[in-house]
Specification:
This is GGDEF domain-containing protein. Residues 23-277 form the EAL domain. It comes from Brevibacillus composti. The chain is of the alpha/beta class. It is built from 12 helices and 10 strands. It has an 8-stranded mixed beta barrel, surrounded by 4 helices. Helix 11 links the parallel strand 8 (232-235) and strand 9 (254-255). It binds ligand C2E and calcium ion (2 copies). Ligand C2E binds at residues 44, 60-61, 72-74, 77, 86, 90, 93, 117, 119, 179-180, 203, 236-239, 256-258, 263. One calcium ion binds at residues 58, 117, 149, 179.
């Protein structure tokens, strides 16, 4: 209704202008940050729900903003995708995490699998597989320990290319997992066509997960079907022992979430890996 009055319209107009200006500033800052590499990789461990061992870790990027401190990806990944900046940024995240993984291995630690998020934009690049291959070579990262997380929409977009890319990566020994599973439109029939090793159950299904809840029905269906297709399952956003218990009942292999650990800088992850070796 505000738009009907003159001043209301003006107000609305000003708001839009301000949003557009904010966005322009943000794009400029983001571009500069990508040039200057003002980002930090955080690592969040994934645990076996059966024996409590660390299965691996996911790398989650943070923007080290000069005035605003550490900014989470929720605030800039979409913009990075829209502007194409996700391509160099994603490549940097992959290279940095692979280097870190290799360093941990050289120190005699067991970081397990390294999971890296790949956006649809990256996945669509013609030279994506080649880039991954050269990063593996350059860093000495073991391809068998690398896992790329792609969303359902990235797997569906331009299907022929997606299928070809997944096969090519798989031939290199790299595992593919489907991120945020359950939020998109991928059918199990479609999934069967891909060499996919893992499904990650989207956090929103885990949030209200209790015995005999609707979410329990959804989660147990996903797990059963995934297992029938030979895939393993990791649940995102596990915050309570009760959620972990329900997931365990349904034979979900892995869990990731605040119940275990929040994402952390490399030094903290290194301490965790060390303490894990000692007991
Ligand atoms: P995602 O891949 O679904 O990552 C999981 C998100 O859930 C992370 O948010 C993580 O910090 C958060 N999380 C983990 N455990 C819990 C929990 O127990 N409770 C709650 N409430 N949250 C939990 P984050 O780090 O803010 O990342 C958000 C999203 O940004 C990621 O969602 C991913 O889609 C994207 N992202 C992060 N890093 C990258 C990257 O390097 N490349 C690309 N393309 N996307 C990235
Ligand atoms: Ca992910
Ligand atoms: Ca998610």
């Amino acid at each position: 209704r505000a738009r009907e009055t003159g001043s209301g319209f003006e107000y609305y107009h000003m708001e839009m202008k301000r949003d557009a200006q904010k966005r322009m500033v943000m794009v400029r800052e983001l571009r500069k940050a990508v040039e200057d590499l003002h980002f930090l990789p955080y690592y969040q461990p994934q645990y076996s729900l059966h024996n409590g061992n660390i299965l691996g870790m996911e790398v989650l990027v943070r923007w080290k903003h000069q005035d605003r401190g550490m900014i989470g990806p929720g605030e800039f990944i979409q913009l990075a995708e829209e502007t194409g900046l996700i391509v160099p940024l994603g490549e940097w995240v992959l290279r940095t995490a692979c280097m870190q993984w290799k360093e941990w291995r050289n120190k005699g630690l067991s970081p397990g699998k390294l999971a890296v998020n790949v956006s649809a934009k990256q996945f669509q690049q013609n030279d994506f597989v080649h880039k991954v291959e050269s990063i593996l070579e350059e860093t000495g990262m073991d391809s068998q320990s690398l896992e790329l997380e792609i969303t359902e929409s990235a797997a569906m977009y331009d299907t022929d290319k997606a299928v070809a890319n997944i096969h090519a990566l798989s031939d290199l020994g790299i595992a593919i997992s489907i991120d945020d599973f359950g939020t998109g439109y991928l059918s199990f029939g479609y999934l069967k066509k891909f060499p996919i090793q893992k499904l990650k159950i989207e956090r929103s299904f885990v949030r209200d997960l209790r015995a005999d809840s609707d979410n329990e029905a959804i989660v147990s269906t996903i797990i059963t079907m995934a297992h029938k297709l030979g895939m393993s399952v990791v649940a995102e956003g596990v915050e309570t022992e009760e959620q972990a218990q329900v997931l365990r009942t349904h034979r979900c292999e892995g869990g990731q979430g605040y119940l275990f650990h929040q994402p952390m800088p490399a030094q903290d992850m290194e301490k965790l890996l060390k303490s894990n070796m000692n007991n």
